[in-house]
């Protein structure tokens, strides 16, 4: 359920970081596909402060080639 989505590892997302994107994005399922140097991660990790371990937590310090023990991804099957 939703309780499994936060606090384990930062979830690597498909969208690119743009600090102003949400001001101009669609309200439903926004995903910034304009290439940028940084990617979005969400949800906090076991190394994060408690206030970062929630579904809306968003981070931007991930380069495409960057690897770290507290980053991961979530596999989803879209029916």
Can you describe this structure?
The protein is mainly beta. It is built from one helix and four strands; from the N terminus they run E-H-E-E-E. Strands 3-2-1-4 form a four-stranded mixed beta sheet, with no helix packed on it. It is globular, with a radius of gyration of 13 Å.
Q: TL;DR of this structure?
A:
By secondary structure, the chain is mostly beta strands.
Sum up the structure in keywords.
single chain, 79 residues, mainly beta, four-stranded mixed beta sheet, globular
What is the strand tally?
4
Q: Strands of the largest sheet, in order across it?
A: 3-2-1-4
Q: Let me know the average pLDDT.
A: 82
Structural class: mainly beta
Give the helices and strands as they follow along the chain: EHEEE
Per DSSP, what share of the residues sits in E-state strands of 2 or more residues? 15-25%
Write down the Rg.
Answer: 13 Å
Annotation field: number of helices: 1
What does the largest sheet look like?
A: 4 strands, mixed
List the helices and strands and how they pair.
Layout: E1 10-16, H1 21-24, E2 39-42, E3 58-62, E4 71-72
Parallel strand pairs: 1-4
Antiparallel strand pairs: 1-2, 2-3
